[in-house]
Amino acid sequence: MRTASLVIATVAAVIAAAGGGFMSGRGVLRTADAPRIAVVSQAIAQTSSEPIYYQDPDGKPFYSLTPKKTPDGRDYRGVPAGADISFEEASAPETMPTAPMDRKIKYYRNPMGLPDTSLTPKKDSMGMNYIPVYEGEDSDDRSVKLSPGKIQRTGVKSEPAALRVIRTLIKAPGTIQLDERRISVISMRAESWVQKVANVTTGAKVNKGQPLMEIYSPAVATASAEYIATINSKTTGGDGFYGRGSRQRLMNLDVPDAAIVAMEKSRTVPIAIEWSAPRDGIVLERNAIEGMRAQPGDVLFRVADTSVVWAMIDVAERDLGMLAVGQAVIVKARSFPNREFAGKISVIYPQVNRETRTARVRIELSNSDGALLPDMYVDAGINTGSSEPVLTILESAVLDTGAKQAVFIDKGQGRFEPRDVMLGHRGDGYVEVRKGITEGEPVVVSANFLIDAESNLKAALKGFSEAGTQP
């Protein structure tokens, strides 16, 4: 036990001297301190076989000098003194690195990543050895090779490109508007007086044929008297063609058919004509007042059928290419957050708003219960994309420079190849690849920016090395 305690104290002293330390149970070890820790580990291996420290059971970089448990209750793994502690990039400080017998060193690069190379072994200003670059590692196929330790530390992960169905949801705000084909206006075509108004107010629901008001019009009364006289003369041998002209005159004055039929049955001229609702709907406007004088064209009633309404939504300019007439749309009203209204795109208006860079899209919605009201705010969701599966990769795999897009292909044995790609639709965290890769190729989806940095460093070093060999 005394030996183990001494060993633990020695390890702690080495780690503290390395500038790391155990804080909150997590150790931070630097690569530059690997030789000293490796020497201590060899000494420990010769003195004791008891655990000298404890490590996370999943191999994560979490350490403790005393027994400890993970947040889910599992014990930390004890690391005995005889365990092999090795650091991949560590090298003995006393000797320069030597090349394997079967490979030839092409040049040496700066260990800190600086654009400095050497054709012979050397040290930098801090005493660190330059890293050898072998002929097999410095290939001309644009690929990047990383050591297994670096791949594990940076968290590089790959996922094969696969066929998937991509559904892109376009969300856009809008408002409810009346169907302009379902609005009726009641006005007079000749000078008239309102004799009586029914008990109907703005906002009231009316049915087709329901009486709204009684109108007296001299022009209508004259045409009615002429028509009745013609009918009576027809029964006594008059000209029937003249009677048809009189009836047409009443129709031209917009007299309701029900009023004309009532005249034909009673053979009398009414003093006032009853005007009725032309359709089922809601009274949007009521300007008729009992006893008022109405000039031709004055709007006395306006009735709208709200059983079908329009959702007018504003779609961003960038999304217009994915829309088509007939696409299904789900509309949610802010007044009814738990209710969905299904509809279809009926019109895509051929104009873009220059200020908002949006285009208006019209969606027809069934509104049989009248829940959707004019000018009500709604949010529309439009599912776009093909129902056929396409080749896809995770969006995180794409390196987008603006001018082009690229991914890294995992070639195995720590080698990664950059590949330019042509992308398509996006959705559900995936992006369609139309050109550049094939199905099943493993694509780097995590830590690819680190590989990209390594690739840029390799290109810079290669440029400096080539420049250094020029006479």
Automatic annotation (TrEMBL):
Highest taxon of the lineage: Bacteria
A GO BP entry: plasma membrane copper ion transport
The UniProt record lists the keyword Signal: yes
InterPro entries reported in the protein's UniProt record: Beta-barrel_RND_2, BSH_CusB, CzcB_C, MFP_Cation_Efflux, RND_pump_MFP
Record-annotated CusB-like beta-barrel domain positions: 309-383
Cross-referenced PANTHER family: CATION EFFLUX SYSTEM PROTEIN CUSB
Protein name: Efflux RND transporter periplasmic adaptor subunit
